[in-house]
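May I ask for an example protein's residues together with how it folds?

___
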Amino acid sequence: MLNKMTLDKAAHLPVWRRPVTLLFLMALAMPIAFNVWSALINNFVVEVAQFDGADIGLLHTIREIPGFFAVGVIAILLFMREQVLGLVSLLLLGVATSMTARFPSLAGILTITMLSSIGFHYYETVNQSLQLQWLDQKRAPKILGWLLAAGSAATLVAYGLIVATWERFDLSYNFVYMLGGGITVLIALYCLFAFPQFEERTPQLRRMILKRRYWLYYSMQFMAGARRQIFVVFAGFMMVERFGFDVHELTALFLINLTVNMTLAPLFGMAVSRFGERRTLIFEYAGLVAVFLAYGGIYYFGWGVVLACILYVVDHLLFSLALALKTYFQKIADPEDIAPTAAVAFTINHISAVFLPVLLGLLWLVSPAAVFAFAAVMAAISLTLATLVPRHPRKGNETRLAHFRSAPIK
């Protein structure tokens, strides 16, 4: 890790020490800790801490605060390299996840969740930046698809073990959290010492930037954050609260998600290469409008658990298409803007995360169907924004409105 090496020289390293291999190992490590936490958290907080809808909304609001302050990554990069920061953040995520069940009170769960969230969000910010810097534009969509598939495969193994052993061996929440977090810690430590520090081709700006020509990217990031919160907070909670899913049943649903995602994610990467970001994003958001309206119908019309499970899988699958937003930015960005804009975009993505979960948690107590109706409106706005993405995005052609602009691009 002490050795520095350019990306061009790294191409001659053994496969197990190349930058793409590091990206794959990180793609394997993060989902193990994060998704083990996600698989158990709804049951853990209901059974152990007696959370209601308002409490779960508060938990996820606290969890998203570090995402709102992801722009702080820029300040840390003044004295720490991106690669090192990403792996240190991965370590923090693993350690905090392993300690989750040791604090079974509201205050304890909120505190340990904040620590794990700092690790998760700072890792995700840096990871996105490294992906866009280390992958060339032609290969990026396909490799991003394979990275998604790798993360799904790692989580599939973790969830499969939970389903197979949770009831049979009467596992405790503490044991599973310790194991999931510990594996992530071991992988992060290996990556810290087994790989050299890779030098970026273009030095990154170490200050916050906001550029007018990125406005569509910023807007879509904001809306994506709002949509993500509603799914992450309330879709799984619905399965537990309304349909009474146990840990192994909810995890089995996650397994179906992962199997489908692992199979189709590489195809999604190829689809972005084939059909472009504009068509991919339009398809994603049109699908989300239908999914969220159907979610609302489950509560309003009393539709059953089978439809709820199908919608959950489809909703999760549409997440994979978000890689088109990454490659859209890669094509329109100045190379030196990638790291600071990744931090700014992550903060923008989490603006809604600070207030939406707790507010919608209160609305949930009155009408769960109204929460999903609100989500459908958010998806419709995203769909409108997606229609502004040009067929061939590049610097100077960031939106379909670009050719109407008379002022020079800055």
User: Anything to note?
Assistant: The mean pLDDT is 86. The chain has one domain: 4-204+211-400. The radius of gyration is 21 Å. The beta strands are 4-6, 197-199.
